[in-house]
Amino acid sequence: MNNQQQKESVTPIGDTKDHGQQPAQAVGLPLRPNPVLYWLGGVGLKLLGGWTIEGRLPDVAKGIIPIAPHTSNWDFFVGLFVKFRLGLEVNFLGKHSLFRFPIKGFLNRIGGIPIHRGSAQGLVSSMCKAFAQREQLILVIAPEGTRKKVKKWKTGFLQIAKQAQVPVIPVALDYASKVVRIGPALQIVDDIDVELARVQAFTGQAQGKIARNG
Is residue 54, in this structure, part of any structural domain at all? Predict the structure, then answer.
């Protein structure tokens, strides 16, 4: 494996060779490596300006990945190519109005979950239930909730993480250096505002595509 592949890899789940008996199924990151999508992810990141992936995802079966700053629709494509490159199965929340023909099927296939912007508490409750019911679930969110500049992030993802007892793994999109930086897994146990500051301390140095909105 060359240096680039090593840099972009995630922790392997384990040996799946047949040794005469069915191996115990390890529960870790929901991975589904695909050589075609791996290649497509690499090509896509190169075409978007030569993006690289820095850091390594922890081998956890469940977690929440807040990606910031979110200032442009291009963030979606950077994230999608990273997903392809890592072979990672994720779910993400999107406005219900986006889930319509002709892209509804595609969004569902790559893990999209349509939401109606109503009760934040209802969303927290339903996502906590999903984490409890599923063996593996990695949820990707844009904590700003919009591409426009905001004074304060939405904190629903931290409430979900705290109640569901799953780690938060911050990821920074830095358009200045064209680097996707994967942060450390954070256990959310303190006051929500304190935990929000911890996440923002990691992503805060990254520059969005539209810098004035970051």
Answer: yes
Mean pLDDT of 67-95: 95
**Average confidence score pLDDT of the chain:** 87
pLDDT in tens, 120-150: 668 899 999 999 999 999 999 999 988 888 8
Residues counted in the chain: 214
Q: pTM of the predicted model, to two decimals? A: 0.83
> How high is the pLDDT of residue 11?
33
CATH of the domain at 98: 3.40.1130.10
Residue span of the structural domain in which 163 resides: 30-209
DSSP assignment of the chain, as one string? Answer: --HHHHHH----------SSSPPP----S-B---HHHHHHHHHHHHHTT--EEES-----SEEEEEEE---STHHHHHHHHHHHHHTB--EEEEEGGGS-TTTHHHHHHTTEEEE-SS-HHHHHHHHHHHHHH-S-EEEEE-TTSSSS--SS---HHHHHHHHHT--B--EEEETTTTEEEE---B---S-HHHHHHHHHHHHTT---SSGGG-
Q: Is position 51 within any domain?
A: yes
Looking at residue 94, what is its pLDDT?
83
Burial of 31 per CB tally in 10 Å (0-12, 13-18, 19+): middle
